[in-house]
Specification:
alpha+beta; Elongation Factor Tu (Ef-tu), domain 3; Helix Hairpins; 4-stranded antiparallel sheet; about 25% strand; elongated
């Protein structure tokens, strides 16, 4: 036998008026709930909005925030000091290098030849110094002899034992010997100066030779490598860059209207786009002395044309006092959000 289908209770199904009234109230209750539910939801939304809005207003009364901020760091260019063909490139992109590590070697044969020539020139000049000293000694001996001869000829000439011609010849020989001695002495000075010049030439040649080995000036990571074996490079040509990993900071460009209560030393919370949920603690290190627009390629000149007031941004340097987080390395150029506590 099929089960009887359920139906809504009818007032006639109840035996007493009280039961019928209760049934009528039950039938009206769902429709009343449906009518009041939207108002309850609206009230909850209003309360939540007021709470959130109050918290936001209170927060921004004591904090300033900007997402116009990036991680900055030291980027050191690697530039050769001498031209030449590259013999070896000893690093790869993004490789970590230590300070003083060899990066590139340039063909050094031409520079070694210059060192050899400078050494030969120095040896030759030093030999000339030896000869000059010998010439001084010979000139000294000759000067002493001729001076002694002149000393003997003087009394003889006074006694008319020798002719005036003989005395004059002895005097001329003494004067010539004295002049030769002075010339030999000056020659030593000149040759010794040449020795100093040749020594300087040799040191310069050795210095140029040392420049054929290109070392990294600092520790960091190799970036933007643009040199290959066999390439001819000029002095001053960028070969690569070294990004230091031990000193990074944030440059946050705050609006000028956000700087009223900002000062050095205030606490900063930095959020990095690359690490959602990770907050880095930092502090304000310094506030820029000029707006970023003043350093643009074509800075605005409000004295010309139509003036339109634009809120300017001032760069603020933010540093990390804590040790770097090895699990969340900060790379130069990363976008961040900086929140400064003005309290």
């Amino acid at each position: 036998m099929k089960q009887a289908q359920k139906r809504a209770p009818n007032l006639r199904d109840f035996s007493s008026p009280v039961e019928a009234e209760s049934a009528a109230k039950i039938r009206k209750r769902p429709s009343a709930i449906r009518r009041t539910l939207p108002y309850g939801i609206l009230a909850l939304v209003i309360v939540a909005g007021l709470t959130f809005g109050t918290q936001t207003v209170v927060f921004y009364l004591h904090h300033v925030e900007t997402d116009d901020a990036q991680i900055e760091g030291h980027i050191d260019p690697v530039l050769p000091k001498v031209p030449g063909y590259v013999n070896d490139v000893l690093v790869r992109d993004n490789e970590k290098v230590a300070a003083g590590q060899v990066l590139v070697r340039i063909d050094s044969r031409d520079f070694q030849a210059r060192v050899n020539m400078a050494e030969a020139a120095l040896d030759s000049t030093e030999a000339a110094v030896t000869v000059a000293h010998a010439n001084v000694e010979a000139a000294q001996s000759k000067r002493t002899k001729t001076a002694a001869d002149l000393g003997r000829y003087g009394p003889l000439w006074n006694q008319h034992v020798i002719s005036p011609q003989e005395y004059d010849a002895a005097k001329a020989a003494a004067d010539a010997a004295a002049a030769e001695y002075q010339a030999a002495t000056r020659q030593i000075t000149a040759v010794e100066a040449q020795v100093a010049q040749r020594q300087a030439d040799l040191e310069y040649a050795k210095l140029q030779l040392s420049y054929t080995t290109v070392n990294t000036p600092v520790a960091g990571f190799v970036s933007k490598k643009s040199v290959e074996i066999g390439q001819f490079v000029e002095a001053g040509q960028p070969l690569m860059a070294i990004v230091q990993d031990n000193d990074v900071w944030v440059v946050a460009n705050f609006k000028e209207t956000q700087l009223r209560s900002m000062h050095v030393g205030q606490a900063v919370e930095v959020s990095v786009d690359a690490y959602p949920g990770r907050t880095f603690h930092a502090r304000v290190d310094s506030i820029g002395a000029a707006t970023g627009a003043k350093f643009a390629l074509l800075p605005p000149d409000n004295a010309t044309g139509n003036f339109v007031k634009v809120v300017q941004r001032v760069p603020v340097k933010i540093v990390f006092p804590e040790d770097p987080d090895l699990e969340h390395p900060l790379r130069v150029g990363m976008n961040v959000v900086a929140v400064v506590d003005l309290g």
